[in-house]
Design a protein that fits this description.
This protein is of the alpha/beta class. The protein has a single domain, classed as Rossmann fold, CATH 3.40.50. The chain is built from eleven helices and nine strands. Strands 3-2-1-4-5-9-7 form a seven-stranded mixed sheet, sandwiched between helices. It has a two-stranded antiparallel sheet with strand order 6-8. Strand 1, helix 4 and strand 2 form a beta-alpha-beta unit.
Length: about 280
Amino acid sequence: MTQAQAAENTARSYYDSEDADNFYSLVWGGEDIHVGLYETADEQIASASRRTVARMAEVAGITSGTRVLDLGSGYGGAARQLAKRFGASVHCLNLSPVENDRNIRLTKEQGLDGLVTVATGTFEDVPVEDGSVDVVWSQDAFLHSGDRDRVLDEVVRVLRPGGQAVFTDPMAVDGLDQSSIQPILDRIQLSTMATPGFYTAGLERRGASAVTFHDHAAQLPTHYRRVREELVAREAELVAAISDSYIANMKAGLQHWVDGGNAGKLTWGIVHAVKN
């Protein structure tokens, strides 16, 4: 088994678990389970997460009819926001059947199944034709890949000339001795995290231009702190849906992200590039 296959299996088994499904749907923001852009320290997770989607859409200039491929789409919150607000056509690709089932149900309930489609698959082997996509979109998913070079290959392959990649990812800062974030690496069960330089240089090597990293590093510890605060505040009610061991491990894991971000070892932001 390759590292990429092992990472895929790890991520799928994690996100398909009942504990994880309940945690992300009940605590992390509901439909949109990604890092938010916070305007205040105590802002609601869901509103900050929606702001991230709006900001990324602005960066990529998404409008009615834009063909978007969302890699690692989770519950489809971003896809539905893009469809509802801008009239974009969004194809979701995600490895978790449990998350995809919820995505399909919520999309139908909101009357958006004419604009949003959902498929099960991985971003190392994207079942989409060459040059067929206007925007490749992803939020906080590529860190789970065991072959991020292959991910970038696929991102560039499916984009049409002039198409854009816009994505976020929790990253280590450039030049970091990543042994110093071992608890986080252990949690995602991978040997490394990507860095801004890995993504920007990698996209440039593949012929992309106007490659930019919009640095929002302070948002990462803010987001993980807010999720941990929500988990602690609601722990008494959540034990009916989430196991004690999962809650305990999640509180410890979230704190590692907070500490790493506050120590300046981690960063997060929006990567944007245009395919030549």
